[in-house]
Amino acid sequence: MQHKITVLGLGYVGLPLARLFATKFPTVGFDINQARVQELNNGHDDTLEVSDELLKSALVKNNPTKEEIGLYCSYDLKDIEDSNIYIITVPTPVDKNNRPVLTPLIKASETVGRVLKKGDIVIYESTVYPGATEEDCIPVVEKVSGLKFNVDFFAGYSPERINPGDKEHTVEKILKVTSGSTPEIGIVVNDIYKSVITAGTHLAPTIKVAEAAKVIENSQRDINIAFVNELAKIFNLMDIDTHDVLEAAGTKWNFLPFKPGLVGGHCIGVDPYYLAQKAQEYGYHPEIILAGRRLNDSMGQYVASQVIKTMIKKDIGVNNAKILMLGITFKENCPDVRNTKIVDVVAALEDYGTEVTIYDPWATPAEVKHEYGLTCHNRLPVIASLAKQSQTSREEQSDLTGKYDAIILGVAHQEFLALDLEPLKKKKAIIYDVKGILKSDTDGKL
Known about the structure:
- By secondary structure, the chain is of the alpha/beta class.
- It has 15 helices and 14 strands.
- The strands form three sheets. A six-stranded parallel β-sheet has the order 3-2-1-4-5-6, with helices on both faces.
- Helix 12 links the parallel strand 9 and strand 10.
- Helix 7 packs across helix 10 and helix 11 crosses helix 12.
- It is globular, with a radius of gyration of 24 Å.
- The relative contact order is 0.08.
């Protein structure tokens, strides 16, 4: 069978996948965000997951036929009517009470239902709890399309494993778990992915197994990070350097190399709640999973309290103190600000009466303002100019001008590693290194 693929959702997961499939298949990238679609068809990805060069090499000018290989991005349903493989890669967030939000997934299922034909396959990549594909999504597709599941159309699940900002472990280099709604469809789904994933594939026996495998991957990481975060709290009380302890323990061959830190983003800080929700529906309260979540969610407040404690020890006045926060994205060298825990640190510091200035060369200020109501500066020359104030006129200085009572390295962007922090400090100022990577002398770190 000749395949034409539509990937629904052109974010951090969908775009790299669509670009990869476009090397072997006619592919349409579909997104409801018209500005995003136009940007991509112009050859630029503002998430920086796909380089302009790579994107432009994949693009074709018009909706490809089933004989034409390449990528075309669209927000028009007419452009996806003749596909026979639909891959859904929309976000699966949680609400303010940490309950799963399936709305994007349901809406994407409705969209597919409007164009689905007999013999088509719908594949889900979004992280969900076991059972969500067949119990929550497929009934929506059936209702809208009027077609019968596993008779007229079929489904698959192949969980995404994208690591935003990681240019080494790109989508084709990460082994892919696949599954299908029947054994035969499982083989078809596996073959489609196997044709582009150089790292290989693993065909799971059922969709539920594939869903469960995905949701425990990040739950496991969350629990391990929670453990070392707890160690950091204990060792800080003992005046022991946690990183020195982990380095020493890491000399054993089977010690897992996790480090303390703020756990944000769209995966590790979210996925465990999906598993916990489903477990509770079955009458089981997952103690370890939720304990790990509580501990990791408390780290923003903990970091802020440690900064304030260190300032007080150095006789630095806290009220109206000026603090420079380096970074607001959820991880280094990546523009993604979704579920970043830096905002928890900022909120806690402001509760203490401090004035926090945020600098991040990777973040988009408008997005930070929209998502969190915070002002973010992202021009590196502004910071660099502070180190050369004698050579820079006052008119060229921004509102970042001035020296700080505390500087916090919140995100390990490459730009920060070479940044001279001394000219930014007041005489008694502190440097707090959340990531534990600065070579300069610091007054505290996790």
